[in-house]
DUF4359 domain-containing protein
Amino acid sequence: MRYLKWLIIAAAVLVLALTNPTMSQYSTWAVQMIEAHAGGLVGTLSTLFSGTIEHAVAANTVRHNYGVFSLYRTAALGHSFTVLGLFNHFILLSHH
């Protein structure tokens, strides 16, 4: 029974590690969020220049990779965001 517990823990850690999102995945997600929340002209320009915006997001982001999850801190245009990445998903933790 004791080995089963360790096997389950090892499997959970492996799944977390394999689904820890990359910086590229984060940049793509961040651009999608910008496009979704920006209205009118800003949203249109964001769509037209998404490659440039994705590069700007990556250039202004620090990734703290903990192996089983990552924290992304992006600071741009007077705003800062902290995002948790795990299981190939992103969760906005704070926005200042």
Q: What stands out?
A: The mean pLDDT is 87. The CA atoms of residues 70 and 82 lie 10 Å apart. The chain has one domain: 2-95. The chain has four helices and four strands.
